[in-house]
Amino acid sequence: MGCVRAQEARPRVRCGDSARPGLARAILHIGLEKTGTSSLQEFLQLNRELLLEREQIWVPDFMGRGSQWPLAVLAYAPSRCDDLTAPLGSPEARRCRLEEIAEQIRSSVQRGPDRVYCFSSEHLSSRLTTSDELQRLRNFLRSLFEDVSLVLYLREPIRLAISRQSTFVKMGLGTFQLPTPQQLCEVFHFQAIVERWQSVFAGCLQVRLFDPSLPGFDLIDDFAAAIGITSIEDYCRPKHVNASLDWTCLRLLSHINQLALQQRGQPLPRAALERLVPLLEASSASPDRPHRAYQADPQIVAAYRDHYAAQEQWLLEHFFPRRPSLWNHPYNPTPADEGAEDQTLAVGEGEEILCRLIVDQAVNQAIPTADLVHCLDQAAWKGEQGVPLNLYDQQTCRELAQTLRSL
């Protein structure tokens, strides 16, 4: 069985003041981060055609294969800038790109007003942190959709923190240092997140649990039930996406990140990380070598448990009253696990040499392959459709050309 739903089965809840017949419906999977979002997004993209044919569920393909983060940026104030807006270029280029995305959504709805439109982005829950931003998003959705359903997954905080920190390391952002629960109090404030979304999208939110410790739990099955798919036997299932690294690989990648920051003052180029991380993931999953999972210190586990006890009790009372506890099998470190007692970030002499060689090769041969492919693909598609390149496209092409000339 999948995880327990926040509410019993019910009809879709309308978020507008009144229903307007003839308008489409929307499903927004809003996160949280590190609750299997990459797998769910890959499932949606793998099955785009089948979902449309069988379920009349339309999944956009013009906002990226992973997180459809531009939907979150559409709700930003024009003056807000962060790492999501940076790739969009100048304020004018950003405006052009966002207007283009909004128009693509509107055009899709006009072509299929009887469809269900499914969007997925963990950035919706992590980046939209004010009522004004949620109201902008709601206003945009209300202009297009008769009703909106929101799906939010929660995960045990200590497991969430471990997974989040591992992802930071894989992104080249420093070493593996598990933060204290107080350092993550805003990011993981479940009650505040739920209440914020409920205050703007009243009656629209499904709260579900990402809990692989639950016997028989399957995230794809659970998500399919959440969005109204009754049978998924014929749907493609994604391979394990964003696989976790074992402690040996995490330790080495932490040191590689540290060396890169020392040598160049910034992380390894993204293209280099996109080659390196899959190799480490494959090594972590290899049956030929023992897998040493990271084991959190029992004291920090207890600190997380104490810090989130009140929030978890609130969730139990409001959304899961039939469960004896929120998590089926709470995280419990096993100090007796082989190698758990020496989980330090120190590296040996041979490992140091290997890490330095990797950094030197990555820095000297870095080509922004992913950006280049995306830019060429976008330009080719617009050429086929007879659509002129906007200011964002032109700036991106120019910046890539300058980067390639400097290599």
Explain what this protein looks like in three dimensions:
The protein has 407 residues and is an alpha/beta fold. Helix content is 49%, strand content 7%. The protein has 15 helices and 5 strands. The chain has a 5-stranded parallel sheet. The N terminus is likely disordered.
**Broad structural category:** alpha/beta
Q: How much beta, percentage-wise?
A: 5-15%
Q: In whole angstroms, how far apart are the ends?
A: 53 Å
Radius of gyration: 22 Å
Question: Which ranges are low-confidence, i.e. pLDDT below 50, for 5 or more consecutive residues?
Answer: 1-13, 16-21, 336-341
The overall average pLDDT, rounded, is 86
**How many strand elements?**
5
What is the approximate shape? globular
Considering DSSP H and I runs of 4 or more, what fraction of the residues is helical? 40-55%
- Enumerate how many helices there are, as a single number: 15
- The ordered string of helix (H) and strand (E) elements is EHHEHHEHHEHHEHHHHHHH
Q: Reading side by side through the largest sheet, how are the strands ordered?
A: 2-3-1-4-5
Question: What summary fits the major beta sheet?
Answer: 5 strands, parallel
Question: What is the topological layout?
Answer:
Blueprint: E1 24-29, H1 37-46, H2 48-55, E2 57-58, H3 70-73, H4 91-111, E3 116-120, H5 123-127, H6 131-142, E4 145-154, H7 157-170, H8 190-200, E5 205-209, H9 219-226, H10 247-264, H11 270-285, H12 298-319, H13 349-364, H14 369-385, H15 391-406
Parallel strand pairs: 1-3, 1-4, 2-3, 4-5
